[in-house]
């Protein structure tokens, strides 16, 4: 069923094959080791006391009773860590125009490892206990007596910016972290003012909780003999965490901190952030001379791990009566939570704002974001972060506009797609799309979804007491973060390139190490395929290592669907260096000029004389011995590449949701879901396919059931999985999936991001479908999540 | 049940008798993970919602975070470690899940294998569970990575269920060879 529109630029034999994941067997046998399974000799256990109130001054903390409890080794508060720097935020909206970034210590509002004076959200850590067992540590928390003087609470970004709102940080007057804009305001305002048609919407993109099934955990292990620290953590970016912790927080030498990501049980953005616990286990391990382990609970995760989305927006679209979009404008209030998380402010601004025009050619566009602090958990990335919020507003607007001018929403989209010949395409909001061929992708999705047959299906559904609705959503997702200089202009403090090393062993086996780190994406399988494809050898000969800063070269890690378009190109380029060296050496070994050396199936032979040949294993051994090599050829095969692409890449796609709403209960059932995504050349379709399916379900969750609900006191009501709904197997049907292929020119594999891109459009597709189903009642919009109760009220009350 | 003083209890875990003094209020998952070092069973939540801790207790799949160790005394407990040999061959269900890539991060996987094992074992050949039945059975297990589709396909494969008709929205592109 796969339509390959456009030419794949990958010529090899291994890439593109649906090979089984080599990681799966140990996962299926329960043998993989996650942080909670690590049991170093002599481990002590840490528990964290989080604030029970959302905003308060700490008057006193009495730890004496806790210290006397059995098994308790240490109780610590902020007073114990006065020489530790706060956890930095490394994405400052607005950009850094310098080779030398500002020293990111002590940013306004940065979070301390433990809070000493004022708590700012429920779960804000105020004390830790280390004890012999996890139960003793947890029990001791209850014996710590903290006196709080309550302060007024604010949990919404727009309210936090209002006159007289409670203030979170002395250094941040008015709670405004950033006022950030992109696009052309004057032009957009003018286009809207003179438009034939304008439509407006007020949208709430609700706060959601990523909820990887593995809660976070950390083990700190200080070696007093060598002065070296080891951190095992559920992290997406071990190198990045090493940099942040050693250089910026703890002030320990970079080369004395090793960070290891063992098997990580899902992340979806949240485990790339720096959290107090990571610093605390290291500090306390040194203080106690024992390994210190901390494993979060689900409720702890919900009150401490970064949350996502959370925009309140006023959006406007202008167009002509015959369906040409002329302008789009967005004013957004983004809720950053209590502290600027590692990169949260960038997610809420650039990642969202620069994406709002999606697949459409729009002459005037403007987005402004007020990013504010409130008494909620800090905001961070969440599968599809920023792009999902952008696609949501744009795709809701397009449907509103179609309804306003009485045109089929598919036809409106068709008329505004950026045409193929316009690429590379400057979207006027700061992104330049690398490549795209939107029309075939769009038409393929409509065809697969049976879009033309929807009127008949609607009538049939009504006869059964159901309202059927169909919703389309398209998207462009910025991926491949990224070009380091370009990221500095977005305000990212840190190199965002990736690297890979390939070492060919004397026996002909190959080790690939990459800076990236998997959180379930089968990197061990895919990076082996890339190396094998380039070198012309069997993937079974290649072993991949990652996730350990001692073993692997630098790299930012896995986020924003970047591993295959950032780390895999580094692997490919490194393999090409190996190949080039083998051709050079082949000339010596075969005793022919270099241009007569043919590299094939891992070995070399003389052009036109296949008898004069050396196999890969023979070459590997000869290179390891190094006998008889001329001075210009170093012995051994060991190469590294640092890959910093010229620009981002921009996958895209079209999704179509068909829903049925039960007229009696208001329940929305997704009955069909079609997705046609374009991630350029993909390495392993079986693995990408699985990621696409999971991503869609994640997006459906936001549309239908997921919401982080805070009450007026800032208490997170949905703080466990009985109160925070995640999609279950019975909530979804099988999907109809297909893909088109438009390679990216920005990396040697022609790859674009894939892992989370399919989370970007589903929320918009489903809300569009539900609004379509209710359109005859005068419904123009319903805020997510579309719970049965909410939809039932609309059905009862009619127009909203 | 009177738990003081702690009596010696016996559990038969993966076919081996294990004797120990259970602590009051100790959960079965704690005994398995911390007491016996069987870390294949996972803890994903505090509320009995996620299913990562599912083990078989006298053949039935149960959430071991909702079972007091003491109340399981005398029972047969099978954990993921008892399903297939370490590093060894996969069972039919595991193999089917592997072929369908029914696991990504793998954190939910042991619990899924334990819960689905009961379904597959109790399926008479030729009477494969329907897709809705499989989805219903999986309701106690959360997965955030796969979206469940590959898991459902894995069970269908394990039960030799006919592949879903294309009109029902088969998610398997034929060109990709699955
Ligand atoms: S740990 Fe979640 S159900 Fe048992
Ligand atoms: S595979 Fe990650 S939660 Fe299921």
Structure write-up:
The complex is a heterodimer of chains A (800) and B (178). Chain A contains 20 helices and 28 strands. By secondary structure, chain A is an alpha+beta fold. In chain A, the strands form seven sheets. In chain A, strands 3-5-1-12-9-10-11 form a seven-stranded mixed sheet, sandwiched between helices. In chain A, helix 10 packs parallel to helix 19 and helix 18 packs across helix 19. Chain A is globular, with a radius of gyration of 27 Å. With 178 residues, chain B is of the alpha+beta class. In chain B, helix 2 (92-99) crosses helix 5 (149-158). At the A-B interface, helix 1, strand 27, helix 18 and strand 28 of A face helix 2, helix 3, helix 4 and helix 5 of B. The structure holds FE2/S2 (inorganic) cluster (FES) (2 copies). One FE2/S2 (inorganic) cluster sits between chains B (103-109, 143-146) and A (213, 266, 520).
Radius of gyration of chain B: 18 Å
> What low-confidence regions of chain B span 5 or more consecutive residues with pLDDT below 50?
162-178
Count of beta strands of chain B = 5
The end-to-end span of chain B amounts to 53 Å
**Multimeric state:** heterodimer
Percent of residues in beta strands of chain A: 15-25%
Radius of gyration of chain A: 27 Å
Largest interface: A-B, 72 and 69 residues
Helix content of chain A: 25-40%
Low-confidence stretches of chain A: none
Q: Can you count the beta strands of chain A?
A: 28
Structural class of chain A: alpha+beta
Largest sheet composition of chain A: 7 strands, mixed
Give the strand order of the largest sheet of chain B, numbering strands 1, 2, ... along the chain.
2-1-5-3-4
Major β-sheet annotation of chain B: 5 strands, mixed
Report the mean per-residue pLDDT of chain B as an integer.
88
Give the overall shape of chain A, derived from the CA principal axes. globular
Mean pLDDT of chain A: 95
């Amino acid at each position: 069923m796969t339509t390959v529109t456009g030419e794949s630029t990958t010529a090899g034999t291994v890439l593109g094959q649906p090979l089984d994941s080599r990681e799966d067997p140990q996962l299926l046998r329960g043998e993989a080791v996650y942080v909670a399974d690590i049991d170093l000799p002599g481990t002590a256990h840490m528990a964290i006391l989080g604030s029970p109130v959302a905003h308060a001054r700490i008057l006193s903390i009495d730890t004496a009773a806790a210290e006397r409890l059995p098994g308790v080794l240490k109780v610590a508060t902020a007073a114990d860590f006065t020489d530790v720097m706060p956890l930095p935020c490394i994405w400052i909206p607005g950009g850094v125009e310098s080779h030398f970034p500002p020293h990111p210590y002590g940013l306004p509002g940065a979070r301390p490892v433990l809070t000493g004076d004022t708590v700012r959200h429920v779960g804000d850590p105020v004390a830790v206990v280390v004890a012999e067992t996890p139960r003793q540590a947890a029990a001791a928390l209850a014996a710590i007596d903290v006196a709080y003087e309550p302060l007024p609470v604010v949990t919404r970004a727009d309210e936090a910016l209002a006159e007289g709102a409670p203030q979170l940080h002395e250094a941040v007057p008015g709670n405004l972290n950033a006022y950030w804009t992109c696009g052309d305001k004057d032009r957009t305002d003018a286009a809207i003012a003179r438009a034939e048609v304008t439509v407006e919407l007020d949208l709430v993109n609700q706060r959601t909780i990523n909820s990887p099934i593995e809660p976070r955990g950390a083990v700190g292990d200080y070696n007093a003999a060598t002065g070296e620290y080891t951190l095992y953590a559920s992290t997406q970016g071990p190198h990045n965490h090493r940099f942040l912790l050693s250089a910026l927080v703890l002030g320990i030498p970079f080369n004395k901190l090793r960070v290891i990501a063992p098997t990580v049980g899902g992340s979806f953005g949240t485990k790339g952030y720096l959290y107090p616990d990571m610093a605390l286990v290291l500090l306390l391990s040194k203080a106690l001379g024992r390994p210190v382990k901390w494993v979060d609970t689900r409720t702890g995760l919900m009150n401490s791990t970064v949350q996502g989305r959370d925009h309140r927006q006023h959006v406007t679209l202008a167009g002509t009566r015959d369906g040409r979009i002329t302008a789009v404008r967005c004013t957004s209030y983004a809720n950053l939570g209590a502290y600027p998380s590692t990169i949260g402010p960038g997610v809420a601004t650039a990642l969202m704002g620069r994406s709002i025009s999606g697949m459409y050619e729009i002459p005037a566009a403007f987005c402004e974001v007020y990013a504010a602090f409130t008494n909620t958990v800090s905001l961070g990335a969440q599968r599809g972060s920023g792009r999902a919020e952008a696609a949501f507003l744009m795709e809701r607007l397009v449907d509103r506009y179609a309804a306003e001018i009485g045109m089929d929403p598919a036809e409106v989209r068709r008329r505004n797609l950026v045409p193929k010949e316009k690429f590379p395409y400057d979207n006027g909001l700061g992104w330049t799309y690398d490549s795209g061929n939107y029309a075939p992708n769009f038409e393929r999705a409509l065809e697969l979804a049976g879009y033309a047959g929807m009127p008949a299906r609607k009538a049939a559904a009504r006869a059964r007491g159901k309202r059927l609705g169909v919703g389309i959503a398209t998207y462009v997702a910025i991926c491949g973060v990224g070009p380091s200089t370009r990221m500095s202009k977005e305000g990212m403090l840190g190199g965002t390139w990736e690297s890979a090393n390939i070492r060919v062993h004397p026996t002909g086996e190959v080790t690939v190490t990459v800076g990236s780190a998997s959180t379930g994406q089968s990197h061990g399988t895919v990076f082996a395929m890339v190396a094998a494809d380039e070198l012309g050898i069997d993937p079974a000969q290649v072993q991949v290592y990652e996730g350990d800063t001692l073993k692997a070269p630098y790299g930012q890690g896995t986020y924003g669907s970047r591993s295959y378009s950032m780390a895999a190109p580094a692997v490919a380029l490194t393999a090409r260096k190996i190949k080039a060296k083998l051709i050079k050496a082949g000339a010596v070994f075969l005793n022919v000029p270099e241009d007569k050396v043919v590299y094939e199936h891992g070995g070399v032979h003389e052009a036109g004389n296949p008898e004069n040949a050396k196999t890969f294993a023979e070459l590997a051994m000869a290179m390891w011995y190094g006998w008889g090599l001329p001075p210009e050829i170093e012995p051994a095969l060991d190469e590294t590449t640092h890959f910093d692409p010229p620009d981002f890449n921009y996958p895209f796609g079209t999704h179509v949701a068909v829903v049925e709403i039960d007229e009696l209960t208001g329940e929305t059932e997704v009955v069909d879901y079609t997705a046609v995504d374009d991630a350029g050349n993909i390495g392993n379709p079986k693995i990408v396919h699985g990621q696409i399916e999971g991503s869609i379900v994640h997006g459906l969750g936001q549309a239908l059931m997921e919401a982080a609900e805070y009450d007026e006191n800032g208490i997170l009501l949905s703080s466990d999985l009985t109160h925070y709904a995640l999609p279950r197997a019975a909530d979804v049907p099988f999907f109809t999936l297909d893909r088109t292929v438009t390679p990216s020119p920005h990396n040697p594999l022609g790859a674009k991001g894939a892992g989370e891109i399919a989370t970007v459009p589903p929320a918009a597709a489903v809300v569009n479908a539900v609004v379509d189903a209710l359109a005859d009642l005068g419904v123009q919009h319903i805020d997510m999540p579309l719970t049965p109760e909410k939809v039932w009220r609309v059905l009862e009350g009619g127009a909203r | 049940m009177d738990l003081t003083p702690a009596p010696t209890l016996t559990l038969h875990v993966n076919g081996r008798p294990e004797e120990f003094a259970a602590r009051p209020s100790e959960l079965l998952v704690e005994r398995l993970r911390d007491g016996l070092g069987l870390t294949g069973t996972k803890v994903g939540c505090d509320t009995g919602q996620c299913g990562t801790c599912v083990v078989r207790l006298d053949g039935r799949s149960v959430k071991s975070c909702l079972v007091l160790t003491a109340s399981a005394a005398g029972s047969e407990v099978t954990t993921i470690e008892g399903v297939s040999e370490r590093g060894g061959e996969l069972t039919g269900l595991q193999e089917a899940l592997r072929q369908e890539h029914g696991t990504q991060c793998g954190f939910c996987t042991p619990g899924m294998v334990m819960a689905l094992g009961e379904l597959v074992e109790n399926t008479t050949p030729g009477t494969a569970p329907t897709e809705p039945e499989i989805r219903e059975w999986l309701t106690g297990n959360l997965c955030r990575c796969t979206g469940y589709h590959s898991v459902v396909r894995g069970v269908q494969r394990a039960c030799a269920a006919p592949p879903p008709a294309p009109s029902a929205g088969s998610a398997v592109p034929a060109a990709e060879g699955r």
